[in-house]
Design a protein that fits this description.
This protein is mostly helical and 122 residues long. The protein contains 4 helices and no strands. 81% of the residues lie in helices and 0% in strands. The mean pLDDT is 92.
């Protein structure tokens, strides 16, 4: 992550967080108040208010840091070397074989211990 420190205005951040919270509350309350309105209009209004709320939150210093984190995570994601289809299939089959063998071993151990306990109890 970058260690850049940018001067931010804490008062502006508080105002933007309040705007974001008010927009989010308006989406929730408006959805309930206009329950008799057509569903399409309510969905569009809620989506628009949510997007505006997220936009306001992303304009704060924490929001900008979050966007920076997402960009850096995307860069790291592109560096990942994904397995081929053959490697994935082979690994899956090996895991499946180990699970089957362990299931048989545990079933056998459970049966043996059950037989021993029932022999002791009578």
């Amino acid at each position: 992550m970058s260690t850049e420190t940018k001067a931010s205005n804490p008062a502006l951040d508080v105002v933007m967080w309040l705007i974001s919270a008010v927009l989010l509350a308006a989406a929730v309350v408006g959805n309930y108040m206009y329950a008799d309105a057509p569903l399409l209009y309510r969905v569009l209004a809620v989506v628009a208010l949510m997007l505006a709320s997220v936009g306001a939150a992303l304009m704060t210093s924490q929001g900008k840091s979050f966007l920076s984190l997402l960009k850096e995570a995307n860069i790291e994601r592109r560096k990942v070397v994904w397995p081929t289809r053959q490697e994935t299939t082979q690994t899956t089959l090996m895991i499946l074989a180990v699970v089957v063998v362990m299931a048989i071993l545990l079933w056998g151990l459970d049966t043996l211990l059950g037989w021993l306990i029932s022999g002791l109890i009578g």
